[in-house]
Write a structure and sequence with these properties.
Layout (H helix, E strand, L loop, with lengths): L8 H4 L8 H11 L6 H14 L5 E3 L2 H11 L7 E5 L4 H9 L3 E5 L10 H7 L4 E4 L15 H6 L3 E5 L7 E2 L2 E2 L6 E5 L12 E4 L3 H11 L7 H4 L18 H12 L1 H18 L7 E2 L12 E4 L3 H10 L25 H9 E4 L7 H17 L13 E5 L6 E2 L9 H7 L7 E4 L2
Parallel strand pairs: 2-3, 2-4, 4-5, 5-8
Antiparallel strand pairs: 1-9, 6-7, 8-9, 10-11, 11-12, 13-14, 13-15
Length: 428
């Protein structure tokens, strides 16, 4: 398997693969059993061991994990789920799938995560669950109100789609006794191609979730192969994780320490490259305890900056447009000024483990210049007499720089300009 050494915009939206995934999938294909098999169960067991928890239940996606967890927790019609508006719409659609209502709340502007104080202020008599979103991989610590929520019959269901491998204090996310849902989608910290995992709170909940993901059938797939009938005793969905996807996950899990280190160092490189950047605020994911899924900045005139960077094939994005402003969720709209301002300013920078330090510095330089161009910061001043020629190449560009300024590449990086091939830039 060939893995490009330098990502372009398309590569940034593709899985990070180590090369062992193909062999793992080939073994499953050769076996001829592609559904829920012993490979799926091995994946569950190894995830549980990695996290240090008694059990883990695999499902088809992170959205399926949230949906199933809500059902297992007994959340349904006429009940409210406290949830940040700043999340992917899948979080809210899972709540709607059980006929519950989202109770949108603000986020901390520094972390883009909810706080215990915000949760307590939002509780109503109809509240039956809180769904913290671990934005960018950062753990959300609700331990200060855990007992209060339990006394009121309110479950905590973590949307940890971004946070596999991250820590809350000294325990892995998922190992703190909370019903936790992970996503193993294409570009998550650990990918199965597509998949999800639920960490149940107790054995009874684990059994309920296993039946739910298997259409409410009591007998396992292996048991059904030895009998002439089966029993369906509850509502269920076809949410099993296939052996093909599980095999990819197993190959990824074996390399996860490398993933952790690479993602942390990538975020730290951005922090260094953006230090002192006018008009740019880096959102802090608590990197020492987090496997960062995103690198998010806040900038003025975000939409203009976005267009400038995309025109240079720099794969920026927005995570996420606030849900309380979406037409589908209009009945649950509440004014959330902090979230609305964040929604106008947030910009996700390319954050792919293929990226190098040089790649990060190029993206950071282009961001600085884009912010300056749109009036968000003062443009850097560079002086020299001759032309500088720059060759753009995909996501971050490669430079061909006869150095008239008399400085190093770092001096040019600070200028923050990426220009098409053959263009001459004359510095005053």
């Amino acid at each position: 398997m060939t893995i490009p050494s330098r990502p372009d915009a398309a590569r940034n939206a593709s899985p990070y693969l180590y090369g062992t995934e193909l062999e793992a999938v080939e073994r499953v294909l050769a076996d001829g059993q592609y559904g829920h098999t012993a490979v799926t169960e091995e994946f569950e067991q190894k995830i549980a061991a990695f996290l240090g928890v008694p059990d883990a239940v695999a499902v088809t996606s992170g959205t399926a994990a949230l949906h199933t967890a809500l059902i297992a927790a007994g959340i349904g019609l006429g009940q409210e789920v406290i949830v940040p508006s700043l999340t992917f719409c899948a979080t809210i659609q899972a709540i709607r799938a059980v006929n519950a209502s989202p109770r949108f709340i603000e986020v901390d502007p520094a972390t883009l995560c909810i706080t215990p104080e915000q949760v307590m202020e939002a509780i109503t008599p109809a509240t039956r669950a809180v769904m913290p979103v671990l934005f960018g991989g950062r753990a959300v610590d609700l331990s200060a109100i855990h007992d209060t929520l339990a006394e009121r019959g309110i479950s905590i269901i973590e949307d940890a789609a971004h946070a596999f491998g991250s820590y809350q204090n000294t325990a892995h996310v998922g190992a703190t006794g909370t019903l936790t849902c992970f996503s193993f989608g294409p570009i998550k910290n650990l990918t199965c191609g597509q998949g999800g995992m639920i960490i149940p709170r107790n054995p009874e909940e684990a059994e309920t979730i296993r039946r739910l993901r298997l259409l409410g059938v009591v007998q396992s797939q292996q048991e059904r192969a030895t009998i002439t009938t089966y029993r369906v005793d509850s509502f269920g969905l076809r949410y099993q994780l296939s052996a093909i996807n599980a095999a990819i996950g197993l190959a990824q899990l074996a390399k996860f320490k490398t993933t952790e280190v690479n993602r942390q160092e990538l975020w730290r490189s951005y922090r260094s490259a953006l230090r002192g950047a006018d008009g740019v605020t880096l959102v802090d994911p608590d990197v020492d305890r987090t496997v960062p899924h995103l690198c998010v900045v806040r900038v003025p005139r975000r939409d203009e900056v976005f267009q400038i960077l995309r025109s240079q094939n720099i794969a920026v994005g927005v995570h996420y447009p606030p849900n309380h402003l979406q037409p589908a969720f209009a009945p649950w709209h509440r004014p959330l000024p902090v979230t609305e301002q964040a929604g106008r300013e947030i910009l996700s920078l390319p954050c792919h483990p293929h990226m190098t330090d040089d790649d990060v510095h190029h993206v950071a330089a282009a961001l600085r210049q884009a912010v300056a161009t749109t009036g968000g910061a003062a443009a850097p001043v560079r002086r020299g007499g001759d032309a500088v020629t720059v060759r753009s190449a995909g996501l971050i560009g490669e430079r061909d720089v006869p150095d008239p300024i008399g400085g190093s590449d770092d001096v040019f990086d600070g200028c923050g300009v990426l220009i098409e091939a053959g263009t001459a830039l004359h510095l005053p």
